[in-house]
Amino acid sequence: MSITKQTNGRWRLDFYPEGKKDGKGKRIRKTFTTKGEAIAYERYILDNVDNQPWLGDKEDRRKLSELIETWYNSHGVTIDDGNTRKSAMIYASDCMGSPLATEFTAKLFSSYREKTNFWKTKTYRTFR
Predict the structure, then answer these.
(1) Are 91 and 42 in a shared domain?
(2) Which of 14, 54, 85, 127 has the fewest CB atoms within 10 Å, measured from its CB?
């Protein structure tokens, strides 16, 4: 990564944004009127080297229980009954079959509530 001043007073940017991998890396050579423009362009290129919008974002493959742990470590420890809430959420996650966070929907939670609340309803207690 070098920005050099040329004899005509202009600035030349000459660098390999991904590194010089056996001479196969892409080389960028460009001339600017000011050094500030060259530095700004270099930063712009380096910021966008890994930006490949056509590939899309990576899918989040974390389980719901991992998100619960993250929640507990960042917020749950600050509340009095955080450990109790964490245990309840882990239990619910296990009852739902430990889904991925992307698979957790309102419908899945409703079916979980329906299954667990059946045992607590008045109707069930009267039939025993």
Answers:
(1) no
(2) 54
